[in-house]
Specification:
alpha/beta
């Protein structure tokens, strides 16, 4: 655990910082707040009240997204088939040791997490949960191709820090697993990620900043199949991209991360993209920022 540093966020919930990735697992404004506003509120879980739902949680981490999901589904008596992908068991170890973490949820969440840690799965009459440990690029192939997901949470470290889970090749595999009315939800507002998802045939929406986070222009991205007839229903958590965001997708920042054989290193993926950006005639991200009076820190490209 030496490379993981405990962080207390502003809403009182705990998170971790990775010394290896030099990045926090969650926003310092609040780990719990981030999970609830970006992932859970955006999921429209009421759609599944009393029904069965398939969910894929990519980069499970400490388990905030899955824990909050489980907590909500316990309340509304829904059935869940959950697959989680995670390369490192240490964050889950931390969660299981942190007493305050499980005070946030129904006691059943701890039971499920302990089973996931010991046996990699949990099953009862309501929930069937599995965690696949290893490189997500490989482990995703273990999920039966017949399973299509209603929700996919993509919550890895940022594209510049961990590009392996944001490449066009990996996201292609991910989107193939989304069903026709499913939502893919991520905190990332990266132009490369958004443009890739759009090029893969999904309709892109921006997660509206909450009142508490009004200094941000977006809290993330929701991608929905264009076959989904429900997408036109009003949603108070996400909306179509603004003109500023659409123009972001016309800049060099929108050039995708590539990993043709799904086994490249971080450095190779980053270098490949930098080379492609250097040769590109697209508008520079700097000029886009200047036009919209953005600071460099406002955007994750």
């Amino acid at each position: 655990m030496s490379e993981l540093i405990e962080v207390l966020t502003k809403d009182g919930s705990y998170s971790l910082r990775s010394a290896f990735f030099k990045e926090n697992f969650h926003s310092l404004l609040g780990a719990l707040e981030e999970t609830k506003s970006k992932f859970i509120a955006t999921s429209n879980l009421q759609r599944f009240k009393g029904k069965s739902i398939n969910v894929l949680d990519i980069c499970f981490g400490l388990g905030y997204n899955s824990a909050s999901l489980l907590d909500e589904l316990i309340k509304q008596k829904s059935y869940l088939n959950l697959y989680a992908l995670e390369i490192d068991k240490k964050p889950l170890e931390y969660s299981l040791r942190n007493k305050s973490f499980f005070k946030l949820w129904d006691p059943k969440v701890r039971t499920i997490f302990e089973s996931l840690y010991r046996k990699n799965y949990f099953e009862d009459k309501f929930f069937k949960c599995s965690v696949l440990w290893g490189d997500a690029r490989e482990e995703i192939n273990i999920i039966p191709s017949s399973i299509k997901f209603d929700l996919i949470y993509l919550d890895g470290f940022s594209p510049q820090k961990c590009p392996q889970v944001w490449t066009i090749e990996f996201l292609s595999k991910v989107t193939e697993k989304l069903n026709s009315h499913g939502y893919l939800i991520t905190y990332s507002s990266s132009a490369a990620v958004r443009k890739t998802l759009r090029n893969l045939g999904l309709e892109i929406f921006t997660i509206k900043p909450s009142f508490k986070n009004r200094t941000f222009w977006s809290q993330g991205t929701v991608a929905i199949s264009k076959l989904d007839k429900n997408k036109l229903k009003p949603n108070f958590n996400f909306e179509k991209l603004s003109l500023m965001e659409e123009e972001h997708l016309l800049t060099k920042a929108s050039i995708p991360y590539r990993d043709q054989d799904l086994n490249s290193s971080k450095d190779d993926i980053i270098k490949r993209r930098l080379d492609e950006q250097f040769l590109s005639n697209l508008l520079s991200t700097k000029k886009w920022r200047e036009k919209w009076r953005m600071t460099k820190l406002s955007v994750k490209s």
